[in-house]
Amino acid sequence: QVQLVESGGGLVQAGGSLRLSCVASGNIFSINAMGWYRQAPGKRRELVATITSGGSTNYADSVKGRFTISRDNAKNTVYLEMNSLKPEDTAVYYCNARPRLLGTADFWGQGTQVFVSS
User: Fold this and answer.
1) Which of 3, 62, 76, 83 is close enough to 24 for a disulfide, judged by CB 3.0 to 4.6 Å?
2) Distance between CA 63 and CA 86 in Å, rounded?
3) What average pLDDT does the chain have?
4) What is the pLDDT of residue 25?
5) Residue 111, C-beta contacts closer than 8 angstroms, at least 6 positions apart
6) Cβ atoms within 10 Å of 97's Cβ, excluding its own
């Protein structure tokens, strides 16, 4: 079992920046890729960014050039640096960990709220 704890959310003005952190604990050797998802009011949860254990990254088109995902395996932590924030980035951001064993359910954090004001 894996536990994920997010931090770093808050209220910022448009154009500002935030850095989210997610610390993994438990059976961390079972983790393959990690990532960030978000769910805005009235919207379905969507992919923001992912990063594999080898460092390969993938981003949603809406955040390319503005957000950067990184991973510190020694600290069992994944980060999401968010720059040039827009009101449409307002959402609850969830940390995700995908097991190496395909077919096993993903692990999720409790989420951290990001609110970007106009």
Assistant:
1) 76
2) 10
3) 95
4) 96
5) 6, 39, 92, 93, 94
6) 23
Q: How many CB atoms lie within 10 A of CB 11?
A: 12
Given this model, what pLDDT does residue 16 score?
Answer: 98
Residue 21 has pLDDT above 90, yes or no: yes
The distance between the two most distant Cα atoms of the chain, rounded to a whole number of Å, is 43
pLDDT at 1: 87
Residue 12, CA distances (Å) to 39, 46, 92 in order: 17, 21, 14
Asked if 99 and 88 count as a contact pair (C-beta separation under 8 A), the reply is no
Contacts 24+ apart (CB under 8 A), 65-69: 69/35, 69/36
Residue 24 CA to residue 33 CA, distance in Å, equals 12
